[in-house]
Amino acid sequence: MLKNHLSAVTWLCVFLVAFVGHPVWLQKPPKRKTPAQLKAAICCEEMKELRAQVANLSSLLADLSKKQESDWVSVVMQVMELESNGKRMESRLTDAESKYSEMNNQIDIMQLQAAQTITQTSADAIYDCSSLYQKNYRISGVYKLPPDEFLGSPELEVFCDMETAGGGWTIIQRRKSGLVSFYQNWKQYKQGFGSIRGDFWLGNEHIHRLTRQPTRLRVDMEDWEGNMRFAEYSHFALSNEFNSYRLFLGNYSGNVGKDALLYHNNTVFSTKDKDNDNCLDNCAQLRKGGYWYNCCTDSNLNGVYYRLGEHRKHLDGITWYGWHGATYSLKRVEMKIRPEAFKP
Ligand SMILES: *[C@@H]1O[C@H](CO)[C@@H](O)[C@H](O)[C@H]1NC(C)=O
Ligand SMILES: *[C@@H]1O[C@H](CO)[C@@H](O)[C@H](O)[C@H]1NC(C)=O
Ligand SMILES: *[C@@H]1O[C@H](CO)[C@@H](O)[C@H](O)[C@H]1NC(C)=O
Ligand SMILES: [Ca+2]
To answer: Could you tell me if 129 and 210 are in contact, meaning their C-beta atoms sit under 8 angstroms apart?
Structure first.
């Protein structure tokens, strides 16, 4: 019991001694800061704030730049799109430019038409593609021939071939797309049908009128293998309707191998509704066209347009016996005329 008490007192003493011996340890006096230390502290506060601001700003900047980047990407995309648009525009421009000369040409024609109505003399008359060629229209394409009271010709849209063998050709027939049926009646063949840039027949009445002066006929042909041939005839003419548009042909020349039109020389025109041929059969109905049928054909340029794969099977196709025989329908045909006197 005493021993215990003693030890407690001892502990108290030890504790007291320690307490008195180390007053500083208990009561720390407030440290006095030097001015330099103070300054540093303020600075650090400011620094901290600045850092926070900087951090804030840089996070803001990061946000902004992220936004900008996406904006930039969209801007770049837009620029790229504009550029590709620009390229497209450029190609369109060159297209337009090439069209421009043609347009110019057409405008000149219109002006010519206007002039034509004022000074109408037969020497100046424009009544086919060769007269246009002589007036320096040298681009192949569609032209409008003005009406001519002196010659009694109405206004007429024609397609001029200004390139083949010296140019000046007025196209009277074309087969190239198969989009127009040539199994037409007398009236249709008389007036003409089809589209001037595609497949068409200019019309027997027009052809008759255009061949009142000595005229050459040229037939350009293409087969499905891509070979091109032509046949030319001097003194091509069609009589009037009263004489059933009888065909006259002079001598053959060309590279198609063998003529296949002279068999039709001096025969008259037949259509499905007018059998004028030299046969018991109705050739127009058998060969499904309008043509100067004899009995019946050596060529059938107004026959049915057959496509590759079908073109070797039929007798009513677009045939030229002197080249590919009676059962080969050609891929492309153009019949065109120009005056004998034409000099390119
Ligand atoms: C940091 O931005 C927050 C808002 O995002 C704002 O409340 C704070 O005041 C800004 N701090 C500084 C130091 O600009
Ligand atoms: C056809 O050629 C022959 C000679 O080969 C010639 O005598 C004749 O006049 C020519 N016919 C025509 C219409 O050109
Ligand atoms: C075409 O027929 C006419 C009239 O019969 C004839 O005068 C002419 O010589 C013929 N053409 C050819 C090339 O035989
Ligand atoms: Ca008949």
So the answer is: no
Residue nearest to atom 5 of ligand 3 (CA): 266
Burial class (CB in 10 A: 0-12, 13-18, 19+), 217: buried
DSSP codes, 141-170: EEEEEPPBTTTTB--EEEEEE-SGGGS-EE
User: What residue owns the CA closest to ligand 1's atom 5?
Assistant: 56
Q: Read off the pLDDT band of 118 (50, 70, 90).
A: very low
Q: How far apart are the first and last CA of the chain?
A: 151
Asked if 288 and 277 touch (Cβ cutoff 8 Å), the reply is no
Q: Decide whether any atom of ligand 3 lies within 6 Å of the 234 Cβ.
A: no
| Ligand 2 interacting residues, C-beta cut-off 6 A | 234-235, 250-251
DSSP string, 86-121: HHHHHHHHHHHHHHHHHHHHHHHHHHHHHHHHHS--
Separation of CA 89 and ligand 4 centre (Å): 59
Please say if the pLDDT value at position 54 is more than 60: yes
| Mean pLDDT, rounded, of the chain | 85
User: Per-residue pLDDT tens for 157-169?
Assistant: 999 999 999 999 9
What number does the ligand 3 atom closest to the CA of 252 have? 13
Give residue-wise pLDDT tens across range 251-290: 999 999 999 999 999 999 999 999 999 999 999 999 999 9
State the ligand closest to the CA atom of 214: 2
